[in-house]
Amino acid sequence: MDADDILSDMLLEVPETPVLLLKTRKRKAPPENLTSKKHFIEPPAPSSVVLSDDKNIDLDTICQDSGVNEDSSVDQNVDQAAQDWQCDNPIVQATSDYTHFYWYDVCEGPTQGTVYFFGRVQVPDNKFVSCCVIVKNVCRSVYLLIKPFCSFDEVVAEFTNIIAKKYKIKNFTCKKVTKRFAFDSQVPIEADYVMIDYPANQQALPLDLIGGTFSKVLNANQSPMEKLILEMKLRGPAWLRLTDPVASSPQITWTKVELVINSPSNLSVEDKPVNLSRPYFCVLSLALQTHAHPNVPGRNDIVAISVMVNTCFRLDQCLNRNNKGCGHFLIMAKPQPSQKDPLRLPFDFPKAIKSFTQTRFELAENERDLLTMFMEKFNQLDPDIVVGHDLLNYDFETLVRQMAINKVGVWDKLGRFKRNTLPSSKKAFPNLFSGRVLCDIKKSAEELMQLRSYDLTELTLQILNQKRVEYNHSLLKESYKSSESLIQMLTAVWRDVDSIFSILVELNIIPLALKITNITGNILSRTLAAGRSERNEYLLLHAFHEDNYICPEKIQAWEKKFPGKNADGGDDKGGDNNPGRRKAAYTGGLVLEPKTGFYESCVLLMDFNSLYPSIIQEFNICFTTVKVPENSDEGAAEIVSESDACGILPTQLKQLVQRRKEVKNKLKVCKDPMQSTLLDIEQRALKLTANSMYGCLGFEYSRFYAKHLASLVTLKGREILLSTKAMVENLGYEVIYGDTDSLMIDTKLTEFLEVMQRGTTIKTAINRRFKLLEIDVDGVYQPLLLLKKKNYAGASLTMGTGGTIVKKIETKGLDSVRRDRAVIAKEAGERILSMIMESGKEICQTVQDIHAYLKELSEQVKKNELPISKYLISKQLNKNPDEYRDTKGIGHVTIALRLNADPKRARKLRSGDVIEYAICTDGTGESANQRGYTLEEMANNENLKIDHEYYLCQQIYAAVSRICDKLPFTNAYAIAEAMGIESCSSIKIPRDATVAVMKDQLVSKGEQRFVTCEPLTIECPACTCIEKIHAKTRKATKGNKLIYALVECSNCSARYASYHRKVVVQIIAHLKRLTFNLYNSKFTCPDCEHSSRNIFGPLNEQGRPVCVKCSATLVADMDDRLMDLQLSYFKYLLDIHNDNNDANASQIEKPTDDTLGLYKDCFDEVLGALRMSFTNTIDAQTVLSMVCSGR
Fold first, then answer.
1. The domain spanning residue 111 has which CATH number?
2. Half-sphere exposure (CA, 13 Å, Cβ side) for 384?
3. Same domain for 942 and 1027?
4. Are residues 592 and 513 in the same domain?
5. Which residue, among 496, 530, 493, 489, has the nearest Cα to 513 in the 3D structure?
6. Are residues 662 and 775 in the same domain?
7. What gap in Å lies between CA 893 and CA 114, rounded to an integer?
8. Strands, DSSP E only, in 720-790?
9. pLDDT tens sequence across 1109-1126
10. Which helix (H) or strand (E) holds 460?
């Protein structure tokens, strides 16, 4: 029997619990409802409050205090919180007819119409214990749109006689109401409805139901929890007043107190609770150390569990990671030796473990004992919030599975509901832990930070600046060889749980989530689950509900993706279940065509502040102000007149922006560090909410998806960007690039202060055109390297202290900063960007430095002088490895499948995991994507070596060549030559970098046009050394003077004039070789690298030969233009008579007559060949005859 079968068949062991009495008041009769029909459900008789059977617990017996707490008040809070578990008979305090209850989580149970609130309730001596309040009899409210010329009584009669009987609705009430609806063109904005209230445990009406007297059914699938949250206006954790609560018996949850409210009217928000202090919460951080079971593949045995707990945590409290006020403990299981895995504790371990004083340590006899001890402490602590890394996908899943295998029947205490079976689907697995707020620092970090990886090792390094040791299967086995190494492993597990709690504190995850929950009005646990779309939904749900609107229906994602299909993907009407790739639903933001190049002057970056939210406010774009088009395929809708009332969406955005301004103003004058931190958290929460508001309009699976509004917003954005560009150009400036909400302006200036003044002038002129839209100077770049759309790098200038200019390199879209680039490629790109942006040298000298650096780096790679960590590539799994269809071309998926198949691996890779690997030579001959291996695999296999050619050609060259593409004095071929890979078959050098010559190279002046030419090589007749003469070496340094290259040999100092004829013969040989190459050149395809000398095949529209394999245009290895350019280069190198105008002419040593004669003869040979070039000759007679004939 496998683990899943054990989980499914496991039965719950419910302990007997003592009964404690709660004094209750006489229940009031329900108020009379003035409706045409009244059906009330009689609540059960009151009973006693049932508390869980927990022994008296002292916090010191559970965990050890960290010892770093220097604040006595925190110590007192810990002691006071510990006493909450020491109450033998806690009695809930009741005031008059009601009881106060602080809620922080809410969910729905298996029974429809019942909502479960979880929180804290006060007991004597100002102590708080966990409590569940069960709200029963929450009704479903359905709205029937009355047809024209039909009456309320007719609709009620049809519903009573036909609809209610058909759908078995027994108890209901009817009422005529006037409501608004703004989400369907077929429904009027305001109309009369018949509101039907009936128990939510009865069947829901279908959304497409139409009757004889009503034309539409609205709000049919609203959940009871959502209805309760909206009607009570709940906006996050708060005090609630419970009127006439009764005790639940028997309890269905593991909370200390369980109360029942038989009507939602007995539950209300307490705005100003009297004589109640804010409750403390218990936050527990968890870390596991597992290792693969030796006999059962895929099973992970738990070696140790480390826990850190803070029992006096307040949700809005900002802690210091060095003063967390936590207790902690660690439990380790003795290994169970087997033939395949003979692990044993070292003989001196009982004595050596006494030196392990970091935390309270307990040793369990086996894994079952470990789990029993952990669950006993977990139940005693009764945490409200559980924190971990990859908590649901690994920690809790492993705990539940191992408790089932070891028959530890208390797995459901990880949540708050008593259960006896696990859910049948993995999607429902999180429901097991309802009632406890789960905080996964991995998910939170993904939302708040941009990192290469989000595993615990990377998070610890980037956030805490600490190195983490991860114990894999082999390292874990090694740790059992001595007590010292085993204690080091336990220390690593303890540090893991400390790091998890420290990251929670450092990022202020819980206070930030609380603020977002208060703003949007959703649930804290859902905010921590990174449900950004759901947050915006609840913000709008509250706003529309308060303004008497019926909210749109909540439709599941699969219903929107596959209309007309059931939940399993089936289609009663047939059809294709695979919709395939679809085009964008509407046109997005405008991206202007960039004027690529290297800009050494100051470039001004101007950016609209929150463009899309500002457009919504500027043009009053909302569901309530813009008419829904009848055809969903139509373009953007039209904006209503300005006289109409402000819409709900602009109003909400305005409130968010105004609140953020007020908070930021308070932050500027705040002196208290703690209060400043809280204000900063609040303004961040407001910013995150406001900036993501537009997203719910364009997200197809959002409840408030509105294609017509989203397209209208982007249309206005494109119009604003174009008009702003035209206005800037009318002011006399050049716009070199624009993207959605920003413009780049080449100021042609070099002074920072002057550029800022010009930016202020432009800003003022643009902002006069709008009421709410604002453009601002977002940065000044000098220099700027603009490569293509969404690809640029620049040195951002800012004014520092003391009036100094501070430079900081900023990039966007470059390959060197992509996460899936190797570390060595990323570092090479950053180094080259630093040389370009911060060197302060002339660009020609910078290019030479780049070539030298790449040559040095290439040598280091070839000689294997760099550590293996430099070659790591990081890629994230977007779905589970076994869900990919074609894995052959996806390297990291191939690795994930291979690792998951390893029975020795404890943790299986799944969606969201980041895999780090290197490309190696393994002798298989497979493509590079199939030759990826992790560091652990490389350590265990000596035959795996780094594939240096792959990293030079596919990683470093690919990243660097794109950066240097727009730099002068270099190109892709020069980069490849500097790295020594110009002949590598795995790289494709662009045509304009090798054989084809750009037009500006033929007409431009100076040395820049000769960057693709070969140097002039001369063999010394005396010592046979090779002299390469190019633009930089045509004059050599000798003492304080410059001499020409053909004066003497740089190696043996022999005078070339003494070997006059031999040198001229070498020049003639060069010219003949060029002519031979011209007439024997091949045509090569730049795409498939097919080459041929046949030019009589198919031609393209320009008359150029095309490849017979892929139809790409063939490129000649040598053509007339390149021949002419090469000859012109030789002429330039040998023409010493034009150096009289050189700035350094006074430093040039005057050549002797025999040297002048040598230069003259060489120059004449080149000039003669150049005059015979086809591109250098114009047949004037032919041209004039064509003109005269009118052709």
1. 3.30.70.2820
2. 29
3. no
4. no
5. 530
6. no
7. 44
8. 734-739, 742-746, 775-788
9. 666 677 777 777 778 888
10. helix 456-464
